[in-house]
Write a structure and sequence with these properties.
single chain; about 350 residues; alpha/beta; TIM Barrel; 6-stranded parallel β-sheet; 14 helices; about 40% helix; binds S-adenosylmethionine
């Protein structure tokens, strides 16, 4: 029922101001029974105030699809015997960076499954090699849950940013998405360790993962309000046939867009990607994401030969294009949405809410 409290304009004013938003108001925004164009244009206005029309590019290098984990939703989970496994060599990773640098990328994101082959020593050696050759670039790691000591070593080797989605902040929901040996508590511990070490930290969650409810999404938002992440990755869950969740439907594009917009209003300084998953479910998903408040895109820099193998979900886009094609296609999409690519590292905006 729409109570007088649930007035879209009033809630948006609260969200982008300093007043606390109540759960009931967040639930109303999440559920979307109102004119959502008001939400999207408010988010776009805030994004323009903090970041103008700039869109930051992150060159994504998916360097291994081996994973010791068994997340029930993920196509590269340990028990998926149909996944064709690969690892890039250090030289191959450096080649991706070389191509990326020539194309104008100033951030490299090294993402992979939790692959025991890539020991801390190996990761540090790759990070410091990239740092040495491209001192004007930021190195972002996204290699899962590690000890505080490992995170400290990666940081000292030159990694300045880390992406680790919390996936869901509700421990009961977390337990339905992951095997017993994984815990919500450890994932959150990792995020706080990363923050304390000094990383720019990215977190986030999938939209429409099995058993997700409006209440669990509210707990995601509350968790992010406590963590105050620098980056927020919100993309739809997409079904993968070779997982225990093969019978569950993919998440909704429109709910993902509303959550991007809500995040922009609550975290005006944040770097928020228009994800590849959004572009996979809707051919103009990334453009819609930008218009809803996103300001980052992450083109693929991995060698074309391995791209299809990094199959977290089915029908992933951009798996057949060379890096240069990926870059020019995205640039066209960004321009056609009314934004421009910024060729810089794209660090988090230091103007924080309330300042
Ligand atoms: N191992 C690292 C980690 O745990 O953060 C990075 C790799 S992990 C595969 C990257 C992200 O992919 C996860 O945080 C998850 O949100 C997303 N992902 C996995 N399976 C997915 C699916 N079926 N649909 C959409 N996103 C998915």
């Amino acid at each position: 029922m729409i109570t007088p409290k649930c007035d879209i304009t009033k809630i948006i004013t609260k969200l982008s101001g300093t007043q606390e938003t109540e759960d009931e108001e967040l639930a109303f925004l999440i559920d979307g029974n109102y004119d959502t164009s008001i939400l999207f244009s408010a988010a776009d206005k805030i994004r323009r105030r903090f970041y103008g029309t700039g869109v930051y590019l992150r060159g994504l290098i998916e360097f291994t699809n081996y994973c010791r984990n068994n997340c029930l939703y993920c196509g590269i989970r340990r028990d998926n015997r149909n996944a064709v496994r690969y690892r890039l060599t250090k030289e191959e990773i450096m080649q991706c960076c070389r191509e990326g640098y020539e194309l104008g990328y100033r951030t490299f994101v090294l993402q992979g499954g939790e692959d025991p082959y890539f020991t801390d020593d190996r990761i540090c050696s790759i990070v410091s090699e990239i740092h040495k050759h491209y001192p004007d670039c930021a190195v972002t790691l996204s290699v899962g849950e590690k000890t505080r000591e490992s995170y400290r070593r990666f940081f000292e080797a030159g990694a300045e940013r880390y992406l680790l989605r919390h996936e869901t902040a509700d421990p009961k929901h977390y337990a339905l998405l992951h095997p017993d040996e994984m815990s919500c508590e450890n994932r959150k511990r990792c995020l706080y360790d990363l923050k304390e070490i000094g990383y720019q930290v990215g977190t986030g969650f999938m939209v429409g993962s099995p058993f997700q409810t409006t209440e669990s999404i509210i707990s995601d938002i509350r968790f992010m309000q406590r963590l105050q992440p620098d980056m927020i990755g919100i993309g739809p869950f997409i079904t993968h046939n070779d997982t225990p969740f093969s019978k569950y439907p993919s998440g909704s594009v429109s709910l993902t867009l509303r959550l991007i917009a809500i995040s922009r209003l609550l975290f005006p300084y944040a770097l928020i990607p228009a994800t590849t998953a959004l572009g996979t479910l809707d051919p103009s998903g990334r453009e819609k994401g930008l218009k809803a408040g996103a300001n980052v895109v992450m083109p693929n820099l991995s060698p074309v030969a391995v791209r299809k193998k990094y199959e977290l979900y089915e029908n992933k886009i951009c798996t057949g294009e060379e890096s240069a094609q990926c870059r020019s296609c995205l640039e066209r999409r960004i321009n056609s949405s009314g934004y421009q690519v910024v060729n810089s590292r794209g660090d988090v905006c230091t103007i924080t809410k309330g300042n």
